Amino acid sequence: MSKATPRQRTFLFLQGPISPFFSRIADALVAQGHGVHGINLSIGDQLSWRRPERVNYRGR
Fold it and tell me: How far is the C-alpha of 32 from the C-alpha of 60, rounded, in Å?
């Protein structure tokens, strides 16, 4: 029986707690080969997310 390879996925992070929680989850997902993206909805999101895969929401 051959070992199944896990499917690579991409995750979108929106708003979370003002803590490094989401950033740490993203680090773990990237380490497993997944993609991550995020949208900053507030200044708290900008301060707590330390990864480059995030864009600022501009209202449109």
Answer: 33
